[in-house]
Specification:
Helix content is 31%, strand content 24%. With 493 residues, the chain is α+β, with helices and mostly antiparallel strands. A hairpin with a 5-residue loop joins strand 17 and strand 18. Helix 2 packs across helix 12.
């Protein structure tokens, strides 16, 4: 079983402290979310798992943490200033605003879908199919999804980068102070290619991994934490010889299918999507997305899926555009501002070239949502009550063990339980809880995915043993306090 819809996870998250609406006491801020005590643990578990798998368990990948605000030229030469746009349209009647390309995808009738083929121009950039400037929605008499009227503005490009100014004396109009919040972590990696190559004395193939916040002023954010304006990415750029790129690309696609499964996500809720030529970003030779079934409630099976991550063969595009040397057809430098050449010299073959890049890019937030949805289960107890059990893997569980005293008015039991919690906290995330009857405490831990509860009872004072209860089977086992850390660690592993 998995969650029947995102709404179920929204209410569980709020109720138990995974995710809260941001700025809630001031009425909130559209599509912004704060991660609560359990959400921050789960996000950390996801990031740690990725980092360990990516950096520690391999010998060919280095880590990096680059700035969120970079020199504006980074975004000029990466192409983001010119082309990181979504096509925007407004309904003049009800003032609703939409992403033109998504409108037809989500609401299009068959007629409109067919209309799309002549109305959209050649693929623009960054995967966004841009409609032409004329009023094409009007032309196909496409009704506004909010009010049903057909009264559209022309479609216009809207740059998704958040702008800011740098420096105390700067004003909003001061172009020289203009800077952006990064819309992806990848560019921070490309501009540090030579730094990492030289300081770590690497040879191809090798990769650079980074986890960090990214910002996009999305036109239509929504679906809880699926699409937000501030989010976190885990990106790795793997540099290879150009002729190795196709098979290395395939290895990373297979690798990520395995890693995502290791988070406890069922294969039934995942599928691959090969991006077509029409939607492929201008820098990409091939991109494969891994989709998750975020919308199981939708009747049309095709519409149940959306992107969890993308794995792109970005060719040598990025290293070239940030390099000082490459020239255009007329012999003019493509980048007159860069002070560095990001090519690679292969000492074995005496060749100099720009490496190709394979990029697996995945969002922390979309992963967290998929992990929660997939772990969600309901179970009925002997009294006929339905309980929520979050069947998270031990690695993902925010809390690994809860230590519970059976009688909180008995000081010896409380003291023993607190002592056990202290012992366990050295090796795992453990909590002590005495805020309810034992049945209620078990139910609360099941709902947040804690794999084990340890109960200290009257007998424990005599036999120095405790009851360990399993979240999934509700089976109970007596374990000596001396063996407890080892016993739990073994089962968690
Ligand atoms: P989409 O098509 O859904 O807008 P994208 O293809 O533009 O996503 P990428 O630029 O490939 O996304 O970014 C890599 C990953 O970052 C995505 O697969 C997703 O997991 C995450 N991501 C991108 N945009 C957002 C967002 N607005 N909110 C949350 N996560 C995001």
């Amino acid at each position: 079983m998995s969650a029947p819809n995102i709404e179920t996870i929204v209410s569980l998250s709020k109720r138990r402290g995974f995710v809260y609406p941001a700025s809630e006491i001031y009425g909130g801020l559209g599509s912004s979310w704060d991660y609560g005590p359990l959400g921050v643990e789960l996000a950390n578990n996801i990031k740690n798992s990725w980092w360990r798998w990516m950096v520690y368990e391999r010998d060919d990948i280095e880590g990096l943490d680059s700035s969120i605000i970079q020199n504006r030229l980074v975004w000029k030469y990466s192409g983001h200033e010119q082309t990181f746009h979504d096509p925007l349209v407004d309904c003049k009647s009800c003032k609703s605003r939409f992403r033109a390309d998504k409108l037809l995808d989500e609401f299009g009738s068959k007629e409109a879908q067919e209309g799309r083929h002549h109305l959209f121009v050649e693929p623009a950039n960054f995967g966004t199919t841009q409609p032409p400037q004329e009023n094409w929605l009007q032309e196909i008499r496409f009704p506004c999804p909010t009010c049903g009227e057909v009264d559209w503005t022309e479609s216009r490009p809207f740059n998704l980068m958040f702008r800011t100014t740098v420096g105390a004396a700067s004003s909003d109009e001061d172009g020289s102070a203009l800077a952006y919040l990064r819309p992806e972590t990848a560019q921070g990696i490309f501009i540090n290619f030579a730094n990492v190559l030289n300081t770590s004395r690497r040879k191809l193939p090798f990769g650079i991994a980074q986890i960090g916040k990214a910002f996009r002023n999305e036109v239509t954010p929504g679906n809880f934490i699926f699409r937000t304006r501030e989010f976190e990415q885990m990106e790795m750029e793997y540099f290879v010889r150009p002729d190795d790129a196709p098979h290395v690309h395939q290895e990373w696609i297979d690798g990520f299918e395995r890693w995502i499964a290791s988070l406890g996500i069922s294969a039934n809720n995942l599928k691959l999507y090969e991006q077509t030529k029409e939607v492929l970003a201008h820098y990409s030779e091939r991109t494969v997305d891994i989709l998750y079934r975020y919308f199981p409630e939708r009747e049309d099976e095709e519409k149940q899926w959306d992107e969890l991550m993308g794995i792109a063969n970005r060719t040598d595009y990025d290293l070239r555009v940030h390099s000082k040397k490459p020239e255009d057809a007329e012999g003019k430098r493509i980048n007159p501002d860069s002070t560095e050449d990001l090519s690679y010299f292969d000492t074995a073959t005496n060749e100099r070239f720009y490496p190709y890049v394979i990029e697996p890019a995945i969002g922390v937030n979309r992963t967290l949502l998929a992990v929660l949805m997939d772990a969600y289960t309901e179970k009925t107890n002997e009294k006929g009550e339905t309980r929520v059990i979050l069947k998270l893997t031990p690695e993902m569980a925010p809390i690994k063990v809860a230590v519970l005293p059976l009688a909180k008015n008995k000081p010896e039991i409380v003291e023993m339980a607190r002592k056990i919690k202290k012992e366990l906290q050295h090796s795992m995330r453990a909590v002590y809880d005495d805020t309810g009857g034992i049945g209620k405490l078990y139910a609360r831990q099941d709902e947040i995915g804690t794999p084990f509860c340890v109960t200290v009872d009257h007998e424990s004072l005599e036999d120095n043993a405790v009851t360990v209860r399993d979240r999934d089977t509700w089976e109970q086992k007596r374990v000596g306090v001396d063996q407890l850390p080892e016993y739990l660690q073994k089962r968690l592993d």
